[in-house]
Amino acid sequence: ENGESITALLPVRDFDAPGNCVFMATAQGTVKKTTLSAFANVRSTGIRAVTLDEGDRLVGVDLTHGGNEVMLLSSGGKAIRFHEEEVRDMGRAAAGVRGITVGEGHRVIALIVVREGMVLTISENGYGKRTDIAEFPTKGRGGQGVIALQVSERNGAMVAALQVGERDQLVMVSRDGKLLRTRVGSISVVGRNTQGVKVMRLRDDDALLEVARVAYVEGMEQEEPVADADTLPEPGT
Asked: Which residue from 15, 41, 49, 126 has the least number of CB within 10 angstroms?
């Protein structure tokens, strides 16, 4: 419908697999978990997956299997990690429960179902880092979380957070349409409560908009070369 956009694509082989759920997160910090089988019969026009409050929107969707931990990360540089069992299964029309309390002017930007790999965080001014998942403590849902990336005048707001492997690659796109593809391994590994390092050079009037992970597959090294974070082109090149 007018004003709608796609949030996530989830490949599913078996809707009736026991324990499988669809886990959702909204910009205002609400989370919801619904049994995957509830989506087995979807009409061409779609079916209701979650009821949203006015002004809220869905920002992350993933599959969980009953024993997962999840993380929510906000534009204010905060992250909260909790076990999915803290969120009960709900019907498709339900609105969900509080997952994280976001500060005024901030919003949830990412949902991560914790798996192997490090947490990559990147700010709108092109600064980022990788952080060991173990640095994010598991606590109850609903709190304000811990610092994942320092939000400062230098950094700007946090715009992307995702879990990555050492041999993955990233595609970063700026508001002005500039694109950079780089190796995850070229981005520094530092602690949670830090500002990170420059990962993409931007003009003063530009800002990083989207970051996508390109998962490693055998033979990727033979593809066209990509830039490393320490050899980035100057803005406009």
From this structure: 41
What is the edge-to-edge ordering of all strands in the sheet holding 146-147?
A: 108-113, 69-74, 78-83, 146-147
Give the span between the Cα atoms of 81 and 89, in whole angstroms: 18
CA atoms of 209 and 7, how far apart (whole Å):
15
Among 171, 172, 180, 167, CA closest to 218? 167
Residue 170 has pLDDT above 80, yes or no: yes
pLDDT higher at 235 or 46 = 46
How much is the CA Rg of the chain, to the nearest whole Å? 18
- For tokens 């998962």, what's the residue? 215
How many whole angstroms separate alpha carbon 18 and alpha carbon 66?
9
Q: How many degrees, rounded to 5, is the angle at CA 59 between CA 38 and CA 15? A: 20
Count of CB atoms within 10 A of residue 182's CB?
A: 21
Structure pTM? 0.89
Cβ 36 vs Cβ 15: under 8 Å: yes
